[in-house]
């Protein structure tokens, strides 16, 4: 039998193209319409609060240094009156647990509140869209401008917008790096053109990431890059508050005159104006039901309520509600009563325990750390009067922001004593290495290893005391 003739390239290419068209969706440019209302006010309040904290906090001083600084070179984290060291990873773990369970709890109760109001992607997209609106105009003007052919006027407007976006992005990158390198030193280095390579890289990287994500990618980040958008579905249940379109009340939808008796005409409350779609930053139609692209910003609620006001219809056609509430026609009291359910109670209990543990750990934290390292060169040796000497190195870390003197002592064996300095002074937020020569009579215990304890106590703060275990060798 003859082999079939090979397919020509002309026959193969259309097949490949057809597969690509089915696998990849072409992005449709979204032009969100500006909206006002109570939820828009809340969003902008969160924008102002979060950015005031982010841009301003790094310029505050505390005890003569930056109030919040994650100093990577010195390997110290300064947070107001606290100084954290790499050994304090326990507190970092608790912070991550608090963040995770807070996110779980908020999502189980009210959906994607974080995404809609405080997520950096949402916040900076709001800022960049505001700049875009101020420079290019409202939604119709922006759409018309993009459809116009190239011209000097269009180039000027677009260049002005992008220059403003880049300025915000670079300032954001500079501020971000200012939390890891002292911001005043960083500002001086920028002004003197002496910025280091790593600082330069991270300012540019974070700045242009902000520029690209908030200026161009926008909803693409939420739809395709953010993992939270994908796993949120498993955290919802029928009693989770989400942005919901009341299908029973709104359908069938259709345009009508305000004076029309629309109920007699068989119409629902939805006038099919499409404004809820126009204001959506991800371009979805909430009337099609809950979708993973919905970030919970509630812009559609503000828009729909304004239309309902103009039509003299009751507000709430689109509102925060739950699946069960819509189905059972619950009021606010029933909705609130069902918010406290096993899932939210478990999240609340775990979160409360972790928060209490974190607060307890901070309040009882001793601003002193001692690490004992044995001198490996000489494990044990005999000195005068038949005594045995072991040599240790003590790493005394003063985590307080004041110079402190510490008294050293040792116990654990009969007549054990220090044959070296008994006092050490450590500068604020610093570590001092001390050689501790420990001697004990050769007959104070049997041969072998014996537990002893180094005792380090602040001379002016008796409650600052650490007792560290070590081993004393008797040959």
Automatic annotation (TrEMBL):
GO cellular component terms attached to this protein's record: plasma membrane
Protein keywords: 4Fe-4S, Electron transport, Iron, Iron-sulfur, Membrane, Metal-binding, Transmembrane, Transmembrane helix, Transport
Segments forming domain 4Fe-4S ferredoxin-type: 261-289
Pfam entry (one): Fer4_18
Keyword GTP-binding: no
Signal peptide start and end residues: none
Transmembrane regions: 41-60, 91-115, 163-180, 200-217, 345-363
GO molecular function, one term: 4 iron, 4 sulfur cluster binding
Protein name: Cytochrome c oxidase accessory protein CcoG
């Amino acid at each position: 039998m003859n082999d079939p003739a090979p397919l020509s390239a002309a026959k193969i290419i259309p097949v490949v193209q057809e597969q690509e068209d089915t696998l990849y969706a072409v992005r449709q440019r979204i032009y969100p319409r500006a909206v006002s209302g109570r939820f828009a006010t809340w969003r902008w309040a969160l924008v102002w609060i979060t950015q005031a904290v982010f841009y301003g906090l790094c310029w505050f001083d505390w005890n003569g240094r930056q109030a919040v600084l994650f100093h990577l070179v010195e390997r110290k984290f300064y947070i107001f009156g606290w100084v954290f060291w790499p050994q304090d990873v326990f507190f970092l773990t608790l912070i991550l647990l608090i963040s995770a369970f807070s996110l779980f709890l908020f999502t189980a109760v009210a959906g994607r509140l974080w995404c809609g109001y405080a997520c950096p992607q949402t916040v900076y997209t709001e800022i960049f869209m505001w700049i875009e609106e101020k420079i290019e105009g409202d939604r119709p003007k922006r759409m018309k401008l993009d459809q116009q052919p190239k011209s000097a006027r269009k180039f000027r407007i677009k260049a002005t917008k992008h220059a403003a976006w880049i300025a915000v992005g670079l300032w954001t990158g500079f501020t971000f790096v200012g939390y890891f390198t002292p911001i005043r030193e960083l500002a001086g280095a920028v002004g003197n053109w002496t910025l280091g390579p790593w600082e330069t890289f991270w300012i540019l990287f974070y700045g242009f990431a902000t520029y690209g994500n908030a200026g161009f990618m926008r909803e693409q980040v939420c739809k395709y890059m953010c993992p939270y958008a994908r796993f949120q579905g498993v955290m919802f249940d029928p009693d989770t508050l989400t942005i919901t379109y009341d299908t029973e009340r709104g359908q069938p939808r259709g345009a009508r005159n305000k004076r029309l008796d629309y109920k007699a005409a068989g119409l629902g409350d939805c006038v099919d104006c499409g404004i809820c779609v126009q204001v959506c930053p991800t371009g979805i139609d909430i009337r099609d039901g809950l979708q993973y692209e919905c970030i919970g910003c509630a812009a559609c609620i503000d828009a729909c309520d304004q239309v309902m006001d103009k039509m003299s219809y009751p507000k709430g056609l689109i509102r925060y509600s739950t699946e069960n509430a819509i189905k059972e026609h619950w009021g606010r009291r029933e909705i609130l009563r069902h918010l406290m359910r096993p899932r939210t109670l478990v999240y609340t209990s775990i979160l409360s325990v972790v928060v209490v543990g974190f607060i307890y750990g901070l309040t009882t934290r001793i601003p002193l750390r001692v690490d004992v390292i044995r001198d490996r060169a000489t494990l044990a040796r005999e000195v005068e009067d038949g005594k045995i000497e072991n040599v240790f190195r003590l790493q005394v870390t003063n985590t307080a922001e004041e110079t402190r003197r510490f008294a050293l002592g040792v116990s654990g064996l009969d007549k054990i004593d220090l044959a070296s300095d008994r006092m050490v002074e450590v500068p604020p937020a610093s570590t001092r290495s001390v050689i501790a020569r420990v001697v004990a009579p050769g007959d104070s215990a049997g041969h072998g290893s014996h537990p002893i304890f180094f005792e380090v106590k602040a001379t002016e703060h008796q409650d600052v005391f650490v007792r560290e275990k070590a081993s004393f060798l008797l040959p």
